[in-house]
Amino acid sequence: MSSEVLSQNEIDALLSALSTGEMSADDFKKEEEQKKVKVYDFKRALRFSKDQIRSLTRIHENFARILTTYFSAQLRTYVQISVVSTDQVPFEEFVRSVPKMTLLNIFDVPPLDGHILMEVNPNIGYAMMDRVMGGKGTGMNKIENLTEIETKIMSNLFERAFDNLRDAWSNIAEIDPMLSEFEVNPQFLQMVSPNETVVVISMNTTIGETSGMINICIPHVVLEPIIPKLSVSYWMQTKQKDKNPEDTKNLEKRIKTAHVPVVAELGNSDITIDDFLMLDIGDVIQLNRRIDDPLLIKVGEMPKFTAQPGELNNRLAVQILDSLKGGEEDDE
């Protein structure tokens, strides 16, 4: 039986056909018994589940935020980068989709096998270089005559930018991105076979008044060892893991050396605004505590102890008599 759910209109049409004799019950049974074949294109093999694609999208949304901060600091202008889509396509189809002349940065990501490609629209690349050279950030589309100086500036900028992928991927793999090749013609790309499935993360990028796309192409061979870490169950287990005992000890050690204010409160009093305005030198304010009552000791604005006043080495001091318990902040 098919698992598809029929709409009300389809049910009505089916009942009408049976009642008018256009279709007999036997014909309906025969149709149900026939095997339904679903067309599958082996050149567009879907090797990643929707769950894994969503995980990759979340990871690179974080990468886009990191890049926004990085480029804003480097270029000293308005920068906005956001993920537009995440798709899995054959590598050949991705190559056909990029412009004939563009900025292609190929990175090694040890210890993972294979390469990751970052394709940058020339508009964006020239706008970045213009800002680095002290300009207003004007974009250009012509890159046929890319000089050695322009190539060096752009490749260094993109290499340092892509280094931030280490932080974005920290939850799934410890990688060390390194720029291995800089190209402008996609026809020279020989990263993987044409039918290899790749994940393409497209990011819309705005620098000042110039906008364009940055595409990150990740072959299946790179992600294959860490695919189990892209599932929802792995993320849930990671969140439920206990904290590292060593981290807890370091935190306790830092807390013990932290400075907190300690105040010995002699008492307080309420007076009217009129009395306050009439106060003068030599006036006496009566407190709400007797001279033989213990003082209240506050630690960080919280009452913690009672004490009695005294003197130690010719300096005022207090001697703690008891500790105060209670309140939401107190763990005891």
UniProtKB/TrEMBL annotation:
Any one GO CC term of the record: plasma membrane
Q: Which GO terms describe its biological process?
A: bacterial-type flagellum-dependent swarming motility; positive chemotaxis
> What keywords appear on the UniProt entry?
Bacterial flagellum, Cell membrane, Cell projection, Chemotaxis, Cilium, Flagellar rotation, Flagellum, Membrane
Query: Could you give a GO molecular-function term held by this entry?
Result: cytoskeletal motor activity
Record-annotated membrane-spanning stretches? none
Its function, per the record, reads:
One of the proteins that forms a switch complex that is proposed to be located at the base of the basal body. This complex interacts with chemotaxis proteins (such as CheY) in addition to contacting components of the motor that determine the direction of flagellar rotation.
Q: Which NCBIfam families does the annotation name?
A: fliM_switch (TIGR01397)
Q: What is this protein called?
A: Flagellar motor switch protein FliM
Question: Which species expresses this protein natively?
Answer: Bacillus salacetis
